[in-house]
């Protein structure tokens, strides 16, 4: 008999521990099916949540070996093969307050979702009595963002949230904002964008964990990028985030390479960079990540343009100016 | 793999690296944004005062499916009222999000042939003439409005070329009038209503389980709930309560397409508070759900040309519907599958017996292109790839037509002042003995709105009730928790749940007989008694989901007993209710609603005539 072991992170409100449950291998099981089997055959005190068991209600996200999955939509076999082991570590999704075992608290997440200003404010020509008009192409533009099932997987491994969740929101919040920002029925999509600019839109680190983890193949990072582009287009270019993006583009257009030494002062301003980054720069120099002379030279003279820079400039200009 | 790197692979070390970088954000330390993050929804009027006094609201909505959210938004709109929505889960985990097909509502546009009259007639005929016709007339008009209004609120509907909402055909309708959002209409509708409610400032009490309704002098005074996060049992006063807790199809436990939350808690609480449970025997079955767990295999599988096979490899539909074969209507197909199994031509036995659906002849490409969702369900639940193998399936319970007796369909009032009911937990009755596809989302939108408006109007005039009855009830529930979780011996209650499901499937499933139903009534009574001495296996306070489920199973047992009693008494076949011993509809004796009430521990059955307006009952042929 092949035995599978789930090491499950337990929490009863005061005490935390990890408990091992062994059960017989069964190729028909999903991760959720395995949890149900453990609860009903071994330990009724184990807590987790599930409702639809077919990947649409978003209840059942848990971490398997540190990675968020929808338990009902993940076959046991798949994760056993993926990890090459018969013992798996099951824990609640990350960046959430844990209520008990695998159950997390959505109370404050829902309050944070309100900051996306959810709900459509439709254009004047539409009304509650007659509804709206929208072309199939415009519907297609927002369809993906509407697939979000609020399972929390995108937030689970978000590095920015783990570092500091007071100046950044869960990736799904940006996806929510963007679905109204991009909706052709919206009176003013910028309402949502402006709010998101205030709420950390420029702080995403591009680690792409949200994109990797979304069980519905939504790309919250792309929603963030789309709203940044809207902010830019609306002349919202002030602040470190926009300046940072602008600095990237300037570098690429000039030489095709990033000038990391110029990047920081351009983003933060010379004074801020000089005062705020001293320690960091010193550590870089000390560990040989940066040569002092090399840095000075780079700052003064910039990189040499890469081969094929003309082609790259064309692309950038096309993207920016549409020609 | 060593202990140390069990959680660590190359992808994770990348994460560790990025995590470390995050500690030195490139854009520097900026003052933290002040974000609205009130800890949770416990901002009841009295809760903020600090003292452990009773929470109170002007309008309390129990349930956050489509109907509850609509009710809350409309109650808020009345202005100046405190409104909260309670849910035993995070708010979007409802049955509403599972609906795929669409929402019915006639939309007028140049060249439109459909009409409200036609929608009304189809609904009446679909209900097998058990639907109340005045109510259905009201419903079809409001359904049309609701579709346009939800479009305005942001529901992302699929579109026709000219920009209007696209519509599709559903079985039982004469015209395409089902508005949809790809194959996720319920999801789109639920989330757009949720967003709208968030934007409108609706409060949410998350992870609170409704236990009972408080009554004093025949008036609703609020509810008793259990805060799942802490285990606390709390009385909540409310001028008006709107029940929106969904259906009770989980009486069949693993043989239903509905979510785990569909345990009829609100219906059972209303019953205990003295209200009748209307038409409890009317439960709709869908012919195809996966053998393990009942998840829906949509009509598309048969629509695209799938075969149904028995254990002899025969396409058995030729015995039941030689003309239409697998494309026969739902009820005929469901009965055919059960007959094959009953007569020994299925596979397996008991609750997991099944027949097969075979798509192999359609070919790999067509399956991948046209039926990806169904293939995925096969892989998840049975570990079977429909490209290579047929899939075990069986009928599955799908919708509860019965529910809390609503006595005024304009307001969704019940006979108890202050208590309103909407969505699948209420029975007005729109769906009668059989709901048409696409009509339940429409009903959730329509009834939710009307309940919200009427409850707000009622609350604006009503006194805030006192909490005496609620405190008493809360004490009883505290005792209930203590006594029941203390038991360490006894049958595990989940075993009783599984036996209940088996008893009901065999005795009150797709085929019903006098003998079978009488035995079911008996068996349920015994199970209910055994349930009271069953073991729960967890005495903890914090999020004790075993106890949560114990209460749900108790509710299911109560509701199942009502259903069996009514089914026994309905000696005819009508809509979803098929009596082998009475195969014909009998309008002379049974053109009435069944109303089951609880008197002490005894069930009492009464009748009320159906309202007929324009459409005289005739035979229901398609
Ligand atoms: C697989 C599937 C497909 C479907 N397809 C369609 C379709 O295509 N078209 C159509 O019209 N209909 C369809 N339906 C039916 C339709 O989805 C439902 O009838 C409808 O959404 C019910 O909405 P509701 O608001 O009444 O209840 P639900 O959406 O079930 O919501 C009930 C709410 O009550 C809460 N609740 C329950 N008990 C308690 C308690 N004790 N304490 C606190 N809260 C509680 C739950 O948490 C939940 O939030 C389908 C249903 C299923 C299952
Ligand atoms: S249980 Fe609903 S998404 Fe898994």
UniProtKB/TrEMBL annotation, chain A:
Q: What class of enzyme is it?
A: oxidoreductase
PROSITE patterns linked to this entry: 2FE2S_FER_2, 4FE4S_FER_1, 4FE4S_FER_2
Task: Provide the 2Fe-2S ferredoxin-type domain boundaries.
Answer: 2-96
Q: Cofactor comment in the record?
A: Binds 1 [4Fe-4S] cluster. Binds 1 [3Fe-4S] cluster.
- Pathway(s) of this molecule: Carbohydrate metabolism; tricarboxylic acid cycle; fumarate from succinate (bacterial route): step 1/1
Pfam families listed in its UniProt record:
Fer2_3 (PF13085), Fer4_8 (PF13183)
Question: Which biological processes are named by the entry's GO terms?
Answer: respiratory electron transport chain; tricarboxylic acid cycle
Q: Which UniProt keywords apply?
A: 2Fe-2S, 3Fe-4S, 4Fe-4S, Iron, Iron-sulfur, Metal-binding, Oxidoreductase, Tricarboxylic acid cycle
- Cofactors per UniProt? [4Fe-4S] cluster; [3Fe-4S] cluster; [2Fe-2S] cluster
Query: InterPro entries, alphabetically?
Result: 2Fe-2S_ferredoxin-like_sf (IPR036010), 2Fe-2S_ferredoxin-type (IPR001041), 4Fe4S_Fe-S-bd (IPR017896), 4Fe4S_Fe_S_CS (IPR017900), Beta-grasp_dom_sf (IPR012675), Helical_ferredxn (IPR009051), SDH/FRD_Iron-Sulfur (IPR050573), Succ_DH/fum_Rdtase_Fe-S (IPR004489)
GO molecular function terms noted in the UniProt entry: 2 iron, 2 sulfur cluster binding; 3 iron, 4 sulfur cluster binding; 4 iron, 4 sulfur cluster binding; electron transfer activity; metal ion binding; succinate dehydrogenase (quinone) activity
Assembly and partners are described as: Part of an enzyme complex containing four subunits: a flavoprotein, an iron-sulfur, cytochrome b-556, and a hydrophobic anchor protein.
Q: Which family does it belong to?
A: Belongs to the succinate dehydrogenase/fumarate reductase iron-sulfur protein family.
**Protein name (database record):** Fumarate reductase iron-sulfur subunit
- The organism is Telmatospirillum siberiense
TrEMBL record, chain B:
Active-site residues are 330
Organism's domain of life?
Answer: Bacteria
Q: What is its main location?
A: membrane
Instruction: Give yes or no: UniProt keyword Plastid.
Output: no
Q: What are the binding positions for substrate in this chain?
A: 286, 298, 398, 435
Q: In this protein, which residues make up the domain named Fumarate reductase/succinate dehydrogenase flavoprotein-like C-terminal?
A: 497-622
Describe its membrane topology.
Answer: Peripheral membrane protein
Tell me a GO cellular component: plasma membrane
Q: Per its UniProt record, what Gene3D superfamilies does this chain match? A: FAD/NAD(P)-binding domain, Fumarate reductase/succinate dehydrogenase flavoprotein-like, C-terminal domain, Succinate dehydrogenase/fumarate reductase flavoprotein, catalytic domain
Which part of the chain is the FAD-dependent oxidoreductase 2 FAD-binding domain?
58-441
Q: Which GO terms describe its molecular function?
A: electron transfer activity; flavin adenine dinucleotide binding; succinate dehydrogenase activity
Q: What is this protein called?
A: Succinate dehydrogenase
Family per record: Belongs to the FAD-dependent oxidoreductase 2 family. FRD/SDH subfamily.
Q: Where in the cell is it found?
A: Membrane
Species this chain originates from: Telmatospirillum siberiense
Cofactors named for this entry: FAD
Question: Which keywords fit this entry according to its UniProt record?
Answer: Electron transport, FAD, Flavoprotein, Membrane, Oxidoreductase, Transport
- Annotated NCBIfam families: sdhA_frdA_Gneg (TIGR01812)
Annotated positions binding FAD = 63-68, 87-102, 265, 424, 440-441
A biological process term (GO) from this entry: anaerobic respiration
